[in-house]
C-alpha cells in the first residue's frame, strides 16, 4: 500500500513516524474511517465535520484545509487503486519530548492508509451478530473520536474468545455503544429507539444518516437511552458504523432477539442506506 505520512506518500514499509509522537505516547490523536465504494467517498461531509469537532475538542489545530483534506482522500484512492474499502485518517498533536503538558506550537502529524475490501459484501448481514454485554470502561468523553481504543479492543477480544462477535457496553444499566458502532433497537410496537447524543457515545455518522432515512419513512423514532432488558425484549436490534453500515444483532448474552434472524426493519434500512449513500457519494 501507499500510505500518507507527514506530508509524503510512501510505500507502507518505508513510512516512519517519530518515537515521540504524542499519538503513540499519550493516545493524543483523533481519527476517522470513511468507506469507499466505486472509488467514491461515503458520508464524507459528516466524517470531515466530526474530524473538525474532535480536533477542536482537543485543541489540535487543523493541519490541512478542507480542500487539501478532500484532495488527500482522492489521491489515496488513486494511488492505491481503491475500488472499494476503507480510508483511515489519523491526526495527532505531533511530536515533542515526553511531557504530560501539551507543548506550545506543536505541528500536528497526519497519517492515512487504505484497507481494500468489498464493503458491499458482508456475510454477517445474512446471519446477524451475536454479542455479549460488558461494563462500560472507557473515559467519559466518547463524543471525541480519539485513538484510545484499548478497552474496547480488550473486551472485544475476550468476547471473541467466548464465541461472540462483539460487545454492548453498559453503564448504569443502559447501553452506550458496541465496541465500534452505535446500537439501536426496534421495539415490538415498531419504534426505532437509539440513544440520544451526549458525551456518553460517539456521534456516529452512519447513525445520523440512518435516523434521517428512518424519519423520512413512516418509522417512529425515539432518541433516548435504553436498558439491557429493552434490548432483550426488542423485536430487532442492529448496530451502525461506517464499515458495516446497518448490521443486525440476533443474540445478546446467549438469548435470541425476536425470532433469532435479521428483521425486516434492519434489512430495509440497510438497503435504503446503501442506495441513498451511493447516490450521494462524492
Ligand atoms: N461508536 C464507536 C465507539 C465507534 O468507534 C464507531 C465507529 N468508528 C461508531 C460508534 C460508529 O460511527 P460511524 O457511523 O461514524 O462509523
Automatic annotation (TrEMBL):
<keyword id="KW-0808">Transferase</keyword>
<comment type="pathway">
    <text>Amino-acid biosynthesis; L-leucine biosynthesis; L-leucine from 3-methyl-2-oxobutanoate: step 4/4.</text>
</comment>
<keyword id="KW-0028">Amino-acid biosynthesis</keyword>
<dbReference type="InterPro" id="IPR050571">
    <property type="entry name" value="Class-IV_PLP-Dep_Aminotrnsfr"/>
</dbReference>
<comment type="pathway">
    <text>Amino-acid biosynthesis; L-valine biosynthesis; L-valine from pyruvate: step 4/4.</text>
</comment>
<protein>
    <recommendedName>
        <fullName>Probable branched-chain-amino-acid aminotransferase</fullName>
        <ecNumber>2.6.1.42</ecNumber>
    </recommendedName>
</protein>
<dbReference type="InterPro" id="IPR036038">
    <property type="entry name" value="Aminotransferase-like"/>
</dbReference>
<dbReference type="InterPro" id="IPR043131">
    <property type="entry name" value="BCAT-like_N"/>
</dbReference>
<dbReference type="InterPro" id="IPR043132">
    <property type="entry name" value="BCAT-like_C"/>
</dbReference>
<keyword id="KW-0032">Aminotransferase</keyword>
<comment type="similarity">
    <text>Belongs to the class-IV pyridoxal-phosphate-dependent aminotransferase family.</text>
</comment>
<dbReference type="Pfam" id="PF01063">
    <property type="entry name" value="Aminotran_4"/>
</dbReference>
<comment type="function">
    <text>Acts on leucine, isoleucine and valine.</text>
</comment>
<keyword id="KW-0100">Branched-chain amino acid biosynthesis</keyword>
<dbReference type="InterPro" id="IPR001544">
    <property type="entry name" value="Aminotrans_IV"/>
</dbReference>
<dbReference type="GO" id="GO:0047810">
    <property type="term" value="F:D-alanine-2-oxoglutarate aminotransferase activity"/>
</dbReference>
Amino acid at each position: 500500500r501507499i500510505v500518507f505520512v507527514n506530508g509524503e506518500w510512501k510505500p507502507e514499509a518505508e513510512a516512519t513516524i517519530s518515537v515521540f509522537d504524542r499519538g503513540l505516547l499519550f493516545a493524543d490523536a483523533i481519527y476517522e474511517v470513511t468507506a469507499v465504494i466505486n472509488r467514491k467517498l461515503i458520508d464524507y461531509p459528516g466524517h470531515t465535520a466530526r474530524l473538525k469537532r474532535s480536533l477542536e475538542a482537543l485543541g489540535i489545530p487543523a493541519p490541512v484545509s478542507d480542500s487539501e483534506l478532500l484532495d488527500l482522500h482522492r489521491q489515496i484512492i488513486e494511488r492505491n487503486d481503491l475500488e472499494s474499502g476503507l480510508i483511515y485518517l489519523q491526526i495527532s498533536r505531533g511530536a515533542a519530548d515526553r511531557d504530560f503538558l501539551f507543548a506550545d506550537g506543536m505541528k500536528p502529524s497526519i497519517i492515512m492508509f487504505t484497507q481494500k475490501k468489498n464493503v458491499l459484501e458482508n456475510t454477517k448481514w445474512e446471519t446477524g451478530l451475536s454479542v455479549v454485554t460488558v461494563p462500560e470502561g472507557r473515559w467519559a468523553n466518547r463524543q471525541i473520536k480519539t485513538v484510545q481504543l484499548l478497552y474496547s479492543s480488550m473486551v472485544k477480544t475476550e468476547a471473541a474468545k467466548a464465541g461472540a462477535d462483539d460487545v454492548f457496553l453498559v453503564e448504569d444499566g443502559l447501553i452506550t455503544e458496541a465496541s465500534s458502532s452505535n446500537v439501536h433497537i426496534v421495539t415490538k410496537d415498531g419504534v426505532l429507539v437509539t440513544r440520544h447524543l451526549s458525551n456518553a457515545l460517539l456521534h456516529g455518522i452512519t447513525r445520523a444518516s440512518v435516523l434521517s432515512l428512518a424519519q423520512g419513512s413512516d418509522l417512529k423514532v425515539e432518541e433516548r437511552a435504553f436498558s439491557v432488558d429493552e434490548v432483550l425484549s426488542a423485536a430487532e436490534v442492529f448496530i451502525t458504523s461506517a464499515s458495516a453500515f446497518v448490521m443486525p444483532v440476533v443474540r445478546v448474552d446467549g438469548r435470541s432477539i425476536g425470532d433469532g434472524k435479521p428483521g425486516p426493519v434492519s434489512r430495509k434500512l440497510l438497503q435504503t442506506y446503501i442506495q441513498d449513500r451511493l447516490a450521494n457519494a462524492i
